TrEMBL record:
<dbReference type="InterPro" id="IPR034273">
    <property type="entry name" value="CuRO_1_AAO-like"/>
</dbReference>
<dbReference type="GO" id="GO:0016491">
    <property type="term" value="F:oxidoreductase activity"/>
</dbReference>
<comment type="similarity">
    <text>Belongs to the multicopper oxidase family.</text>
</comment>
<protein>
    <submittedName>
        <fullName>Cupredoxin superfamily protein</fullName>
    </submittedName>
</protein>
<dbReference type="InterPro" id="IPR001117">
    <property type="entry name" value="Cu-oxidase_2nd"/>
</dbReference>
<dbReference type="Pfam" id="PF07732">
    <property type="entry name" value="Cu-oxidase_3"/>
</dbReference>
<dbReference type="InterPro" id="IPR045087">
    <property type="entry name" value="Cu-oxidase_fam"/>
</dbReference>
<dbReference type="InterPro" id="IPR011707">
    <property type="entry name" value="Cu-oxidase-like_N"/>
</dbReference>
<keyword id="KW-0325">Glycoprotein</keyword>
<dbReference type="GO" id="GO:0005507">
    <property type="term" value="F:copper ion binding"/>
</dbReference>
<dbReference type="InterPro" id="IPR011706">
    <property type="entry name" value="Cu-oxidase_C"/>
</dbReference>
<feature type="domain" description="Plastocyanin-like">
    <location>
        <begin position="474"/>
        <end position="517"/>
    </location>
</feature>
<feature type="signal peptide">
    <location>
        <begin position="1"/>
        <end position="23"/>
    </location>
</feature>
<feature type="domain" description="Plastocyanin-like">
    <location>
        <begin position="34"/>
        <end position="147"/>
    </location>
</feature>
<dbReference type="Pfam" id="PF07731">
    <property type="entry name" value="Cu-oxidase_2"/>
</dbReference>
<keyword id="KW-0732">Signal</keyword>
<dbReference type="Pfam" id="PF00394">
    <property type="entry name" value="Cu-oxidase"/>
</dbReference>
Length: 556
C-alpha cells in the first residue's frame, strides 16, 4: 500500500488502514475542531467560527485519488455540516455535507467524513453549510494536487499562496439570520476580509488604526501560484495586485488557456489560480486589493479588502492610491466578456481520464431541459423568501437520500417545475428527477452519456453550484441567460443552489435526484456505517452522545 507522511503545522497525514474499498490509494486524516473564537478583523471584537483555533481554517492539501478522512467535532452551540465546494463526491452524496443528504452533526457531537478525491485537480474550499454559518467563518482552502505522473501545464511554481477573500459583517451569523428571518435585507457589508484580516491602512480616513492586515511575503524574480477564493456572503469582488499581471491558469478545478489579466472578477463561491511573477522592482511593497463590484463605489469605499505584497528586498511601504478597479459599475459587459474570455485548455492533462470532462459534451444526449428563473425576493406566508421557478425550497427534517434508503414516503415531491410556475410562489420540498432513459429503460451507467440542460435566468449576479456533476459551477449574470449542460453521471441526491448565502438561506435551491433502480455499489457507495439519523428516523440513532464524558475528551 502506498503511504505518504507529510507533517505540517496543524495536522498530520497518516496512511492508516487498508480495506477492500480503500485499495492502493493513500488515506489522509484530518481532525477538525469547529468552535467559536473571538477576533476583531475590522477592529470590532466578534465571535467567529474557527477550525482548530484558526480563522480561516487550515488548508487541506491532498493529491488526486487520496482518500480524505475528516473527523469534524462540533463545538458550536448549534448544528453543523461541512461541505466541500466544487469537490465531486463521486458515488457518495452521503459525504456532501448538505441537509438534503446528511443529518446535521448536533452540537458537541463529531462525525467523520470519508471520501475519495477522484479525477479532480485544482483549488477548492470547504465551509459550514448550515444556518448562514459561513458568514462567521469556518471556511478554509482545499487543494487537490496532480499525481506525480500527471504533468501540470506550467512550470512548477516557486511557491503556493492561498488567498480567501470575502465580504464581511461585524454582526455574526445569528444576528444576520435574525435580520433575514425578519424580512430585512442584510445591507452593505462592513468590509472585505483577506485571509480573515481587515484592510491595510491605505487611507487614514477610511481605515481605522490598529487593524491587523495580511502580508504576503515573496522573493523577487520568483513565480507563485496564487489561489483566490471568494468565500463571502453575496458580494462579487474584483481582485488585483498593483503593477502585477495575473496569469490565469485554473478556474474551478480546470486548467484554463493562460491569459494575463490586470484584474479579475471573482463571484461568491468561485475559485481561480493565477501565476504571478514578481517582476517589479522592490522600491516599495504593493497593494493586493479585493473590492466590491457592480456597486456605487463612492458609497461602498469601505467594502474593500487590502493586503500587502512584500518583496524580500522591499525598500518601503505601499502608499498612494489603490490600483483602479474597472470603471463600469452599472455595465456588466466587461465582466461578462471577461468571463467569456476564460477558456478551458482541453489539451492540458487533467486528473481525469477525459481531461476537464469536456470532450464528450457533444455526445451527451439531452433528456431533459429545465428553465430556471429566479426573481427578486417574494413574500410567502408573510415571510421574505427566495425562489427558483416560484418554489422556495423547504429543507425536510429527514434528508432526502436517507428517506430513499429506508423507503420513507412523503418526505419530498419529485415535481420541480421545468419552467417558472404561473401561480403564487410556494414553499415546498420539491426536487428534480434525474432518472435517465436508455433504450426505453431508466438506468444510470457509471459513465452515462445522458444529460440535462439547465437554462438559468437571474436578476442579479450569482454563481450556481451544481451538486457533484461534471460541470462544477456556472456564473449567471443579471437579466442574462446561461445554458448549463450537466452530465447525469453520478448517482445520488445533489444540491443545486445559488452560492449567494442570503438567497440560499432563504430557499433558492433544490436537489437533483439521480437514481439507479438497480442497487449496486458500482454506481453508488453504500450508506456509511456512521450515518447519523434524524427526523422520522431519529429512533435509529444507535450511538447516543454523552456530553459530560465527551466534554472531558474534547476540552484538551
Ligand atoms: C460492493 O459489492 C460487492 C458485491 O456485493 C462486495 O463484494 C463489495 O465488497 C462491495 N464494495 C464496497 C466498496 O462496498
Ligand atoms: C451573535 O451576536 C449577538 C449580538 O448581536 C450575541 O448576543 C450572540 O451571543 C452572538 N452569537 C455568537 C454565537 O457569538
Ligand atoms: C501540498 O503538498 C505537497 C506535497 O504533497 C507540497 O509539495 C505542496 O507544497 C503543498 N502545498 C501547500 C500549499 O502546502
Ligand atoms: C468521533 O470521533 C471518534 C474518535 O475521536 C471516532 O472514533 C468516532 O468514529 C467519531 N464518530 C463519528 C460518528 O464519526
Ligand atoms: C494547454 O496545455 C498544454 C499542455 O500542457 C500546453 O502545452 C499549452 O501551452 C496550453 N495552452 C495554452 C493556450 O495555455
Ligand atoms: C481617503 O478617503 C477619503 C474619502 O474617500 C478621501 O476624501 C481622501 O482623499 C482619501 N485620502 C487619500 C490620501 O487618498
Ligand atoms: C503575461 O505577462 C507577463 C508579464 O508579466 C509576460 O511575461 C507574459 O508573456 C504574459 N503572458 C501571456 C500569455 O500573455
Ligand atoms: C523602481 O521603481 C521606482 C518607482 O517606480 C522608479 O523610480 C525606479 O526607476 C525603478 N527602478 C528600476 C531599476 O526600474
Ligand atoms: C453614488 O453615490 C453618491 C453618494 O451618495 C451619489 O452622489 C452619486 O450620484 C451616486 N452615483 C451614481 C452613479 O448613482
Ligand atoms: C443518443 O440518442 C440517439 C437517438 O435516441 C441514439 O441513437 C444514440 O445511440 C444515443 N447516443 C448515446 C451516446 O447514448
Amino acid at each position: 500500500m502506498a503511504s505518504r507522511c507529510v507533517f505540517s503545522l496543524f495536522f498530520t497525514y497518516i496512511a492508516l488502514f487498508t480495506s477492500p474499498c480503500f485499495a492502493e490509494d493513500p488515506i489522509v486524516n484530518f481532525e477538525f475542531v469547529v468552535s467559536y473564537i473571538t477576533a476583531s478583523p475590522l477592529g470590532v471584537p466578534q465571535q467567529v467560527i474557527a477550525v482548530n483555533g484558526h480563522f480561516p481554517g487550515p488548508t487541506i492539501n491532498v493529491t488526486t485519488n487520496d482518500h480524505v478522512v475528516v473527523n469534524v467535532r462540533n463545538k458550536l452551540d448549534e448544528d453543523l455540516l461541512m461541505t466541500w465546494a466544487g469537490i465531486q463526491q463521486r458515488k457518495s452524496s452521503w459525504q456532501d455535507g448538505v441537509l438534503g443528504t446528511n443529518c446535521p452533526i448536533p452540537s458537541k457531537w463529531n462525525w467523520t467524513y470519508q471520501f475519495q478525491v477522484k479525477d479532480q485537480i485544482g483549488s477548492f474550499f470547504y465551509f459550514p453549510s448550515l444556518h448562514l454559518q459561513r458568514a462567521s467563518g469556518g471556511f478554509g482552502g482545499f487543494i487537490i494536487n496532480n499525481r506525480d505522473i500527471i504533468p501540470i501545464p506550467f512550470a512548477t511554481p516557486d511557491g503556493d499562496i492561498m488567498i480567501l477573500i470575502g465580504d464581511w459583517y461585524t454582526r455574526n451569523h445569528t444576528a444576520l439570520r435574525r435580520a433575514l428571518n425578519a424580512g430585512k435585507d442584510l445591507g452593505m457589508p462592513n468590509g472585505v476580509l483577506i485571509n480573515g484580516k481587515g484592510p491595510y491602512r491605505y487611507n487614514t480616513t477610511l481605515v481605522p488604526d490598529g487593524i491587523e492586515y495580511e502580508t504576503i511575503d515573496v522573493h523577487p524574480g520568483k513565480t507563485y501560484r496564487i489561489r483566490v477564493h471568494n468565500v463571502g456572503v453575496s458580494t462579487s469582488l474584483n481582485f488585483r495586485i498593483q503593477n502585477h499581471n495575473l496569469l490565469l491558469a485554473e478556474a474551478e478545478g480546470s486548467y484554463t488557456v493562460q491569459q494575463n489579466y490586470t484584474s479579475i472578477d471573482i463571484h461568491v463561491g468561485q475559485s481561480s489560480s493565477f501565476l504571478v511573477t514578481m517582476d517589479q522592482n522592490a522600491s516599495t511593497d504593493y497593494y493586493i486589493v479585493a473590492s466590491a463590484r457592480f456597486v456605487n463605489e463612492s458609497l461602498w469605499q469601505r467594502v474593500t479588502g487590502v493586503a500587502i505584497l512584500r518583496y524580500s528586498n522591499s525598500k518601503g511601504k505601499a502608499s498612494g492610491l489603490l490600483p483602479d478597479a474597472p470603471n463600469d459599475q452599472f455595465d456588466k459587459t466587461f465582466s461578462m466578456n471577461q468571463a467569456r474570455s476564460i477558456r478551458w485548455n482541453v489539451s492540458a492533462s487533467g486528473a481525469r481520464p477525459n481531461p476537464q470532462g469536456s470532450f464528450r459534451y457533444g455526445s451527451i444526449n439531452v433528456t431533459e431541459i429545465y428553465v430556471l428563473k429566479n426573481k427578486p425576493p417574494v413574500t410567502i406566508n408573510g415571510k421574505q423568501r427566495r425562489t427558483l421557478n416560484g418554489i422556495s425550497f423547504l429543507n425536510p427534517t429527514t434528508p432526502i437520500r436517507l428517506a430513499d434508503q429506508f423507503k420513507l414516503k412523503g418526505v419530498y415531491k419529485i415535481d420541480f417545475p421545468d419552467k417558472p410556475i404561473t401561480g403564487e410562489p410556494k414553499m415546498e420540498t420539491s426536487i428534480i428527477n434525474g432518472w435517465i432513459m436508455v433504450s426505453g429503460r431508466r438506468i444510470v451507467e457509471e459513465r452515462t452519456t445522458s444529460g440535462m440542460v439547465l437554462l438559468v435566468q437571474q436578476h442579479r449576479i450569482a454563481t450556481y453550484k451544481l451538486g457533484s456533476f461534471s460541470t462544477g459551477m456556472a456564473r449567471v449574470f443579471p437579466g442574462g441567460w446561461t445554458a448549463i449542460l450537466i452530465s447525469l453521471d453520478n448517482v445520488g441526491v445533489w444540491n443545486l443552489r445559488t452560492e449567494n448565502l442570503d438567497s440560499w438561506y432563504l430557499g433558492q435551491e433544490t436537489y437533483i435526484r439521480v437514481v439507479n433502480p438497480e442497487v449496486t455499489n458500482k454506481t453508488e457507495f453504500p450508506m456509511p456505517d456512521n450515518a447519523l439519523f434524524c427526523g422520522a428516523l431519529s429512533k435509529m440513532q444507535k450511538y447516543v452522545f454523552e456530553p459530560y464524558i465527551s466534554n472531558m475528551m474534547y476540552f484538551e
